Structures are given as C-alpha cells and as structure tokens.
Amino acid sequence: MSASIEITNVTKRYGALTVLSDISLAISAGEFIVFLGPSGCGKSTLLRMIAGLEDVTEGTISVDGVRVDTLPPGKRGVAMVFQSYALYPHMTVAQNMSFGLENIGVAKAEIEKRVRFAADTLEIAHLLDRKPQKLSGGQRQRVAIGRAIVKEPKAFLFDEPLSNLDAALRGRTRLELAQLHGRLGSTMVFVTHDQVEAMTLADRIVIMQDRRIEQIGTPMEVYRRPATRFVAAFVGSPAMNFIPIRDAVMNGDRLSIDTAGLGTVSVPLHLPPGFSPEGAELGIRAEDVSVAAAGAPGIALTAEVIERLGDRTLIYGHLEDGTKMTVEADGRNATRPGDRLTIVLDTSALHLFDKTGAAHHPEGD
Amino acid sequence: MSTENTTYRPESLTANRPLLWIAAFLSILMMAPVAWIVGLSIKSNQDLMLGTETVFQLPYTIANYINILHSSQAFGWFFNSLVVACGQTLGVLVLSSLAGYAFARLEFPWRRTLFVIVLFGLAVPEQAVIIARHQMFNWFGLHNSYIGLILPNLSSAFGVFLMTQFFRAIPKEIDEAALLDNASQFRIFWKIMLPLTLPAQATLGIFTFLYAWNDYWWPLISATRKEMFTLTIGIASSQTNFAQSEGLGFLSAQAVFASLPVLIVYLIFQRHIVTAVSGGAVK
C-alpha cells in the first residue's frame, strides 16, 4: 500500500521562533523522497509533523487525500523509523513488532503472519525471541524497519536511520533500503544530512535550509542544475568552487565574464535581466576543472593540500589572486603541495550566481 | 589493548591492605551488637540475670523462641508490621510512579511549580508536622487503624523525585514510537514506561519497606492499643524495666525475630541496595 502526501503552506512556530515557513510539497504515491539539509534546517521537524509528533502551526497535511494534521500519530497510517531506533528495551523482537498491531486489535494469527513476513524480508527471523540489547546496531535497525513494515503503512518515515551505523554497514543498509522500496513500492520519506544517502536513494530530493525549501528535484537535477548557491555548495563533494566576478557583458551570444582569479571567461549564457555583477559569483565543480599539460595555455594554480582517494586525486590550491580552487585529477596524478600547475575550465559547466544566490545555468546543460 | 591490561589483578587488593584492615575492623564493629543480641536470645533468662557475660558459656537454649510462638503477642505485631510495610510500599510505588510519570511526561498547568512544591517536602522534617498530623488523624478517628499507620507516609517526596528523574531519563522517542503504534496514554505508561522503571521501583520499594518496617516515631503516636502495635513499638513495650534485668533473653529473641524480614529483604535485593546506595555507580 502506498499513498500520496500533500503538504500545503505549512508553518511551524515555537512561540516567537519560526522553524518552518510556508512549506508546500506534493509527494506522489510510491515515491522515495529525501529531505536533505544541514542540522537545524527544519527537515526533521517537517518529518515529525507528517508523523504527528509535532503540531502544525499553520497549513495542512494530507495523506492519500485525507487531511491528517488534526489526527493523533497512531491514526495517520504512517510508520516511522527513528534515528535511535526507539525499540522497546523490555520486549523481544517479536513483541516489538507486534505491539502496534495489538493496539489496533489485529487478530493473533494475522499478527504472526505479518511478523513472520517482515522477519523473513529483513532476514531477522532467527532474532525474534531476543531483546534489543542482545542485538547489534544493524540488527536493531532492521527490527525498527520491521516494526514499520508489519503495520503495512501508507507511508514510511525515516529520521536519519543510518547515522548510527558504521560506514560499511551504512553502505550496505542503504542498498537494502533501495531494494526494500523496490519490493514494497511504498511511499518513503527519508531525512538525512548525508548527501550520498540522498543522491543514491531518492527519486526526488528536497533540499532545505533556514526554515524553507531551497530546491526540489531529482538527484541529477540538484547536482547539475542547482537552483541556488546554497544547493550548489551543499550538494557534491568536494564542494563547488566559487569565483567572485568583477563584470559581465554580452559578447555575441555568449556572456563575457571578467574575474580576478580566472581573467575573462566566455560562457554560453544570456545576461539575466536586471543582473548586477556586484556580489555575483561563478561556480564550477572540481570535476569540471582539469590539469593541463605543462606549458599548455591555461590558468595558474598553486597546490596546497593533496587528497589521494585512489581512483582520483583532489588538489586544493589557490589562484594567483588568492581565490581558493579545488581540482579533481586522475588517481595517478603526482602533484605535491607547493607545485604550480596549469588548469583548464570546462566553460560549458560554469554556473552564474547573482548576489541573491539564484543560479543561472548555461543552456543545454 | 592487550588482555593483560584488562584482566583484573588481585594484587590491587593487597596494595590496599591498610584499607582492607580498616574495612574489616568497621565490619566487626557493626556486627558486634547483632552478634550480641543473637547470643543473648539463645540464653535462658535465668542465666542472664546472673550477668550478661554468661553469654559466652554453655548451655544455650531456643526456649525464648518457643516462648514467642506460645506466649508473646509478637506474631500479631509482626503481622501488623507486615501489613503496614507492604501497604506503604505498594502505595508509595503506585503514587510515586503516577506522579513521576505526570511530572516527567505530561503537559499540565503549574507543572514546574508543583514539582518544586513536592521537592520542598524533602526539606520538611516529620517532627515539624507531627502534632498537626496527630490532631487530624484524631479528628477523623484514624488512630489505631492500619489506614492511620499507612496513610501519612504514602506521599513520598523522595519517591516522586526519584521516579520523575527516572522517567525523564527514558528517551522520548520510546513514547513517540508507542504513540505511532497507536497506544493510548495509559497503555504507554502501563506497558512501556512502567516496565522500564523496574530498577527504580525496586530501589524505592526496598527503601520504603525497610523504612516502614523500622519506623518507630509515628506508630508510637498513632497505635496506642496493644493489638495495633507494630513490632518496633511492641518490642519496646516488652521491656520490663529500665535496666532490663529480667526477660533479657526473651526480649533479644523478639528483636532477632523482628529483624528477620529485613534480613530476608536485604539478602534477596542485596545487589539492588548496593546499586541504590552507590548512586548507580556499581553495575
């Protein structure tokens, strides 16, 4: 079973403090949506409002076309997996999973059937008689998911469920969650501050910052065409390079942008109406900057720190005017700190950000 | 880390040998009166009239204990103590748990203020309210009744404080998970929260039971009829004269008899008591 979720003009205030401001979002049935943002951006609060653990100050939330923001959490037809798993410590795994079903008077045989199904799905059938303290972190995580599955909810809500797992287990569980979503076809809303989780799991990512939504889009949309400077800086590792600009003028059908660090670059972009170069920046990802052969024409960069990741090398350095720049090079690159390099930019991959942070992308990208 | 470093080494005890001697000396000091009473209880009253040093000489007898069975009212008093201590323990556990849960988890007007008022209860000595309490119980005709003996100690400021702190320490997500599991407020309290506070319940229960069993002050005021005496009052009333020159063995036997439940409670819950006294530092 899966259901759509509509969030309409939702605001959340604690007294005078506004933590979410006029949020609207439509989630389709069966969609995997990820709320991504830094700590304190309001993403967990929004999830908790869908779950019913926080009141809605203004606006409405509907699940499957039925308004739920006035209903208690247990009546909304959603199940939640908490960051801390929140398993009942004194109950066995089976009791943890069946507690919610007992509360709504599901027949014993049906409870057993559902618990068995969930346990088999998550490969925890051999743990059913154990108590949570006898389980590893990964196993607890599965039980928490199992507790959600048995309820056959209209939507699953995940509040940073992978953040307590070690790196290897996190990767594996991420994959299993994607498989689970494929198998159950349920609507899933997932909160994280980890962009890898967001990029790999989401059908669409909702990027939040400072009480509001910055951008909603598919993982590749938010990566390739970030709506704002914040999204460009937040999504992607290493973070996008930003170069302050001095002036921009149209030159034929290309925009000629003058910068201190890069000199003048020509970008396949039209000058946005009312654009002012003051406070504006150019953005380019490290992967769109390459190291040129020695003596070739290009821009000078002095390397400061080198990160060797095996398959690629990240070179952190500065341009002649001191602007910081990160370059992604081949894994075999032998640059050392202090080396002077020549770099070349893929100008079709440049993004222009005006002083409000709004992005302008080259056509066709 | 190598296993050698983590292995417990008995040398650390020998290194603290002076401390060990002090502990042993203090233990003997504490045990001596207990051993003395037990010794007196197995001597005949006639022997003891010659002098209590006869405790170190044969013969010994269990006649005093048999006398308790036949002649004394100790069994009645024992029963009274049991009713009062169990009643008080049960009452304190129920009230403290409910109040603690409310203070820790429910939103209601004046919650903080009320909690502070409860905490003030910790600072009020029993002696300060005893006359007013006596007067009240007199008006309601509650003296010389189980209710009269149990009721005053049910409102335990310490119990409410302990349970509130314990409920507060339970992660809020557990309640929230139960809310999403469609559990009612009472079901969350009964099926989830209460079982999680069992260690605190055990601590509070043991202390309440021991306090109630050994309580002397209020039963002395409230229970004036012999059949309503608790053990502590009963034994005190059995003293024949100030110097206690006669019936000393019998009196000692009653004292030993009175201590048995406390000893049993202690033996069963030893681990909990040690944990409670050490403030949870010992696991």
Brief account:
Chain A is α+β, with helices and mostly antiparallel strands. Chain A has helices at 43-51, 93-103, 108-122, 137-149, 167-184, 195-201, 219-224, 229-234; strands at 5-14, 17-27, 32-36, 58-63, 66-67, 78-81, 155-159, 187-192, 204-209, 212-217, 241-251, 254-259, 263-267, 281-284, 289-291, 299-308, 312-318, 324-330, 340-345, 351-353, 359-360.
What order do the helices and strands come in, and which of them pair?
The complex is a heterodimer of chains A (365) and B (283).
Chain A: E1 5-14, E2 17-27, E3 32-36, H1 43-51, E4 58-63, E5 66-67, E6 78-81, H2 93-103, H3 108-122, H4 137-149, E7 155-159, H5 167-184, E8 187-192, H6 195-201, E9 204-209, E10 212-217, H7 219-224, H8 229-234, E11 241-251, E12 254-259, E13 263-267, E14 281-284, E15 289-291, E16 299-308, E17 312-318, E18 324-330, E19 340-345, E20 351-353, E21 359-360
Parallel strand pairs in A: 3-8, 3-9, 6-7, 7-8
Antiparallel strand pairs in A: 1-2, 1-4, 4-5, 9-10, 11-12, 11-14, 12-13, 14-20, 15-19, 16-17, 16-19, 17-18, 20-21
Helix pairs in contact in A: 2-3, 2-4, 3-4
Chain B: H1 3-6, H2 11-15, H3 17-41, H4 45-50, H5 63-70, H6 74-105, H7 111-120, H8 126-139, H9 146-150, H10 157-169, H11 172-180, H12 185-196, H13 198-214, H14 217-222, H15 231-238, H16 248-277
Helix pairs in contact in B: 3-16, 5-16, 6-10, 6-13, 6-15, 7-10, 11-12, 13-16, 15-16
Membrane topology (chain A): Peripheral membrane protein
Pfam families (chain A): ABC_tran, TOBE_2
Protein name (chain A): ABC transporter ATP-binding protein
